[in-house]
Write a structure and sequence with these properties.
Blueprint (H helix, E strand, L loop, with lengths): L4 H25 L8 H21 L9 H4 L4 H17 L5 H23 L6 H23 L6 H19 L6 H22 L6 H23 L5 H21 L5
């Protein structure tokens, strides 16, 4: 059966709207739930968001041309954004306000729209959409790494969670390289392995959550950037110098922000 572009657009809008409504309800409800119920409700909302992001993309005419590595990661950016923002709103109590919940939902809508924009533009003309999706991933990573670092007293489970988080989030910027999904998964796993090892080492240090999160974000950003350059065969002296300078400057700023105590 052939689906017209008009009916496809209507389907995308309907699924996208339903997904955002669920997200809005999640943002409103989660800060009001106790610690035993909130994780289950948050996971259920995240599951719906992931399915919604996939179904919205599936209604796009270009969906059939996507590689499996791209299809399997369509849920990552929106779910990561929801998890990070919902956790922060619950932590600060800001999610009880409708305006704050609506703002978080609107930003989620922009991420979904940018991801759809990636599908309808040629590779050389979708840089803006790719930037927005990657920005959402890095901002989410910063928040989630900070929240994990705050639980550093738990030891190795925090490092394991940081490794899994980094590996999953890395698939979004790495999926754009024109390579098979096995290589993409391998490099994402390597990023997660390094971040997890460093996160484990950081559990023996005392710093604020924002400093720990910033350190892990900086490492994640540099590793993802280098991995992406290797995968698309653009790695060279310029890339190494660029990320070396960014890493060194970021490290100086983070260490200077302290406090770092053994």
């Amino acid at each position: 059966m052939v689906v017209s572009r008009g009916s496809s657009s209507v389907e995308q809008v309907a699924i996208g709207t339903a997904t955002l409504v669920v997200a809005l309800l999640g943002y409103i409800m989660l800060p009001q739930l106790d610690d035993t119920l909130a994780p289950a409700v948050g996971a259920a909302v995240a599951l719906v968001l992931g399915m919604g992001a996939f179904l919205v993309a599936r209604a796009h005419p270009s969906f059939g041309a996507l590689g499996r590595g791209y299809v399997w990661t369509l849920w990552v950016a929106p779910v990561a954004w929801f998890a990070a923002s919902a956790a922060l709103l619950r932590l600060t109590g800001g999610g009880t306000g409708l305006a704050v919940a609506a703002l978080a939902t609107a930003l989620l809508g922009i991420i979904l729209a940018a991801q759809q924009r990636e599908l309808q533009l040629a590779a050389g003309t979708r840089r803006g959409a790719e930037f927005l999706v990657s920005l959402a991933v890095f901002v989410s990573a910063f928040a989630l790494f900070g929240l994990l670092y705050e639980q550093r007293a738990l030891g190795w489970p925090v490092a394991l969670a940081a490794a899994a988080l980094a590996a999953v989030l890395a698939t979004v910027p790495l999926r754009r390289a024109a390579v098979d999904e096995q290589r993409t998964a391998l490099y994402a796993a390597l990023v997660g392995l390094v971040v997890g090892q460093v996160a484990w080492a950081l559990t023996y240090w005392t710093a604020t959550a924002i400093v720990g999160g910033a350190f892990l974000l900086l490492l994640f950003y540099v590793l993802v950037g280098i991995s992406e350059a290797v995968l698309d065969r653009s790695f060279g002296r310029r890339v190494l110098l660029e990320y070396g300078v960014v890493g060194a400057c970021g490290l100086v700023l983070i260490v200077g922000a302290g406090p770092w105590h053994v």
